[in-house]
Write a structure and sequence with these properties.
There is one protein chain. With 239 residues, the protein is α/β, with parallel strands linked by helices. The chain folds into two domains: 29-156, Response regulator (Rossmann fold, 3-Layer(aba) Sandwich), CATH 3.40.50.2300; 163-232, Orthogonal Bundle (Arc Repressor Mutant, subunit A), CATH 1.10.10. The chain contains nine helices and five strands, in the order E-H-E-E-H-E-H-E-H-H-H-H-H-H. The longest helix is centred in the last third of the chain and has 16 residues, at 223-238. It starts with 28 loop residues before the first strand and ends with a helix.
């Protein structure tokens, strides 16, 4: 009986191509999207980590419409902050390159991570911890895994709104002002503002418009309960 020996070093396969320490059969080739010093720092650290920058674009919009691009293993999209505009650009890139891993590098919080993943990202790296997070995150997404900072793993869970918060958000979707919501619910306007602030924080949005857009997005998971309440409110208003 022969025993198999396991080693942390991956031996070359019989194809004449060397493998690296993670088992990839060639240096991982990255497409880098971004401008200025943020993108430059990503490029420097990526090359120092043994990755090859095969393509550079200032924005996803510069990718050719038919989706053609150099042969890359993943795209890295860098920006100092990640908000709705960056989310729209990321969706464009994800739609043009279906199945290709996309890693976002930005300043982060739970909201930014949720928005990036919802827009098609396979991973998220903090710009402030780029040196330590970028190499393993690139390798993870290229292996078909999801990569986010451990301290923000809770960002993947859908926040739970209280019944009153759902009621208030339903009326926001219907276009009622804070004062109108307060009058209909027989509450102080300051109480409505408090419910909105709490709901916005849980949902990872910063305005009524962003909240409404998220609720109406069928992929967000927020819609069913809130929209059902709004339908009841609308029916009661007509009666």
């Amino acid at each position: 009986m022969s025993l198999l020996k396991y080693s942390s070093t991956v031996e070359p396969v019989n194809e004449g191509r060397a493998t690296n320490r993670r088992g990839f059969r060639h240096p991982l080739r990255l497409g880098l999207i971004g401008r200025g010093g943020t993108a430059q720092r990503v490029a420097v650290i990526a090359e120092q980590s043994g990755f090859e920058i095969a393509a550079r674009l200032p924005s996803p919009e510069r990718l050719t419409p038919n989706g053609t691009s150099p042969a890359v293993d993943a795209y890295v999209v860098s920006s100092r902050a990640f908000g709705p505009a960056e989310g729209r650009s990321l969706r464009l890139l994800s739609n043009r390159l279906p199945g290709l891993p996309i890693l976002v590098v930005s300043g982060y919080d739970g909201r930014a991570i949720r928005e990036a993943l919802a827009a098609g990202a396979s991973g998220f790296v903090s710009f402030d911890r780029l040196d330590e997070q970028l190499p393993p995150a690139v390798e993870a997404v290229c292996s078909g895994q999801l990569a986010i900072p451990m301290e923000f793993r809770g960002a993947l869970a859908k926040p739970r709104l209280s019944p009153r918060e759902k009621q208030v958000m339903a009326m926001v979707v219907m276009g009622f002002t804070n004062r109108e919501i307060a009058n209909k619910l027989f509450l102080a306007e300051t109480t409505i503002k408090s419910h909105l602030s709490s709901s916005f924080g849980k949902m990872g949005v910063r305005s009524r418009h962003e909240a409404t857009t998220l609720i109406l997005d069928s992929s967000s998971g927020f819609g069913p309960g809130i929209l059902a309440i709004s339908e009841n409110v609308e029916a009661a208003t007509r009666s």
